[in-house]
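Students often ask why inverse folding is considered easier than folding. One informal answer: many sequences map to the same fold, so there is more than one right answer. In these notes we will look at a single instance of the problem. The structure comes first.
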């Protein structure tokens, strides 16, 4: 069974090396695993709870999206979208609000932290507590439950939110039937936490970060500013507690790390150690920087990719929301109470699409993928894009009936096309005729 994994990124800052090592790099690698359907979203609704600077949220959205794309996230293989492009999410938030007890939300860590802060200051308990902050767990629950995520990678401080999402899903299912999947938190205790310039955890709140895709000279300058002790060149130096060594270890393989540790024992000068760290980081980040800068210079390309991701996400969210609306009684008055809502062929067709491309052999190919990017149909090579396009047109207009005529141009299993492929082609055909 395909496992769905969902990750959200709040759009309130510029990614730094700590974000890359602790989240981005591992998530990009995980997205390439077989049998995993990955969802990554820019949580700009959540950003409004923390930030009231529109220009900052817009800029952060661009920088974070560009960072993930430059780091290797493939929008053709995953569903990469902006939260605010999915109107079904706030609608599901309201449905969940109506089944979530206030007592549950009273126990949320962020809300309780504000109450404690106000109590310590002698202020009104709800001073500076917005309804958005109080309702934050419900919006997060909607993000997760909308796409039936099985696993949500989080730090230990976020486990409570996953547990609350499970409580909301269980309450909804108890009242309206088994519609929502109860998610599980995915905890990785091996996630690296990078120290910052001053040795404390790298964090924007400490102003000690190293920008992920800043200019090369800026990266070098920031690394040269990492705080070290006063031991002179030639004096042995400890790797234990050394921010330089910890950061190097996060980028190096075992052999490189061992060599760097030996250099510490041999008394490497701090300036030389910092230069070695700079070269090792730049070897990994440098090739990505050009792509990042290209995306920042062309925000329309990032926008196009996010809107395409929103199409894929809504191909799942729109019919699912129709199901949930029907379940709670928001349905046409003539609809039978027990019947499931009909899904128009156009919506089913929107969930799959043909993609045409040229391979290194000079021939032209196409494939049919579903909303999640899963392959339904693969062609063999065509001599010209026109020939490939004509085959796609036949499949769109004739549906499954065209499979036999095009059998020698398609990669089909020996026992014939899968039922899901036939259903997809039928939906495309009906959409063409509508």
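Output (designed amino acids):
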């Amino acid at each position: 069974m395909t496992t769905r994994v969902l990750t959200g990124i709040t759009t309130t800052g510029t990614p730094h090396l700590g974000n890359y090592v602790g989240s981005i790099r591992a998530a990009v690698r995980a997205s390439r695993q077989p049998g995993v359907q990955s969802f990554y979203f820019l949580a700009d609704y959540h950003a409004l709870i923390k930030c009231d600077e529109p220009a900052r949220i817009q800029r952060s959205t661009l920088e974070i999206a560009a960072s993930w794309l430059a780091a290797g996230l493939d929008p053709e293989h995953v569903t990469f979208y902006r939260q605010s492009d999915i109107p079904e999410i706030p609608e599901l938030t309201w449905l969940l609000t109506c089944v979530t007890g206030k007592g549950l939300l009273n126990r949320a860590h962020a809300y309780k932290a504000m109450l404690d802060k106000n109590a310590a200051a002698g202020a009104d308990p709800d001073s500076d507590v917005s309804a958005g902050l109080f309702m934050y767990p419900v919006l997060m629950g909607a993000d997760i439950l909308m796409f039936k995520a099985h696993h949500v990678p989080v730090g230990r401080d976020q486990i409570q939110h996953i547990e609350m999402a499970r409580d909301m899903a269980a309450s909804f299912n108890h009242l309206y039937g088994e519609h929502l999947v109860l998610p599980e938190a995915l905890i990785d205790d091996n996630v690296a936490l990078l120290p910052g310039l001053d040795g404390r955890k790298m964090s924007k709140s400490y102003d000690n970060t190293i920008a992920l895709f800043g200019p090369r000279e800026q990266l070098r300058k920031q690394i040269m500013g990492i705080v070290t002790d006063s031991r002179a060149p030639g004096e042995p130096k400890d790797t234990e507690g050394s921010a330089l060594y910890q950061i190097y270890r996060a980028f190096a393989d075992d052999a490189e790390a061992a060599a760097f540790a030996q250099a510490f024992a041999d008394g490497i000068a701090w300036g030389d150690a910092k230069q070695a760290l700079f070269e090792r980081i730049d070897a990994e980040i440098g090739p990505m920087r050009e792509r990042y800068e290209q995306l920042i210079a062309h925000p329309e390309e990032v926008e196009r990719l996010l809107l395409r991701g929103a199409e894929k996400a809504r191909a799942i969210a729109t019919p699912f929301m129709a199901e949930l609306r029907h379940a709670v009684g928001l349905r046409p008055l003539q609809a039978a109470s027990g019947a499931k809502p009909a899904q128009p062929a156009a919506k089913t067709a929107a969930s799959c699409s043909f993609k045409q491309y040229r391979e290194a052999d000079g021939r032209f190919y196409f494939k049919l993928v579903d909303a999640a990017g899963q392959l339904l149909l693969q062609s063999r090579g065509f001599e010209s894009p026109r020939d490939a396009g004509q085959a796609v047109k036949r499949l769109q207009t004739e549906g499954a009936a065209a499979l036999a005529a095009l059998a020698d141009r398609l990669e089909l299993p020996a026992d014939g096309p899968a039922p899901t492929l036939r259903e997809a082609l039928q939906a495309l055909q009906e959409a063409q005729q509508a």
